[in-house]
Specification:
By secondary structure, this protein is mostly helical. It is 79% helix and 0% strand. The protein contains 5 helices and no strands. The longest helix is centred in the last third of the chain and has 56 residues. It is elongated.
Length: 198
């Protein structure tokens, strides 16, 4: 994985420092963790792939990251002394959470599109198989029976797979809405903290 790819995975700009990389990784790891998908094995497997990508991106970036972040970075050392530095620290964390939520949401939305396209393809295939089975049900003999049996099985399999995909699509929609709410709440907190620190 290149540095540019790693920055894209974590949703960071080219000038991200060590604090921003760590914060983005931590927030994304919480939001995209496989446990968020409960017993849904397919979605958990995809989340595990995303976690591997996050881990690799973090490793690539932290090897070459600067030790300090840009101007909006979290204050270091005596950051808890005054209300302005505390507000800056809160604003930094909330901004990191908002950015991570948006990156995670975009990942979930991309996965949602893929699932919808797959469901559409499966339903088209099931419909074609059902038509073929219906046409060949009229034929007598071994060929008609064989094609009818295969067409029927494919149609039933397609309908079952589409139903399973529908449950995954609903889980991804729910997760996308949750991430949108998280992003908006974190942005509000960051704005309030910035106003307090100003």
């Amino acid at each position: 994985m290149t540095r540019e790819e790693a920055l894209g995975v974590l949703g960071l700009g080219a000038d991200a420092g060590r604090d921003e990389i760590s914060a983005a990784y931590r927030e994304l790891a919480q939001m995209l963790h496989p446990d968020k998908y409960g017993d849904n094995k397919r979605l958990r497997a995809r989340a595990e792939q995303q976690m591997r990508a996050l881990n690799e991106a973090r490793d690539v970036l932290l090897k070459g990251a600067r030790t300090s972040s840009r101007g909006s970075a979290r204050p270091s050392g005596g950051a808890r002394r005054g209300s302005a530095t505390s507000a800056a620290s809160i604003a930094f964390e909330a901004t990191a959470r908002a950015n991570a939520a948006e990156t995670a949401r975009l990942s979930v939305v991309a996965e949602l599109r893929t699932m919808r396209e797959r469901r559409r393809s499966v339903l088209v295939m099931a419909a074609i198989a059902a038509v073929v089975a219906l046409v060949f049900s009229r034929l007598r003999g071994g060929l008609g029976t064989t094609v009818f049996s295969i067409g029927s099985m494919v149609a039933v399999w397609g309908v079952v797979d589409a139903a399973l995909l529908s449950s995954q699509i609903e889980a991804l929609r729910t997760r996308s809405r949750e991430l949108l709410q998280t992003r908006d709440a974190a942005r509000r907190i960051a704005e309030e903290a910035s106003q307090l620190g100003a």
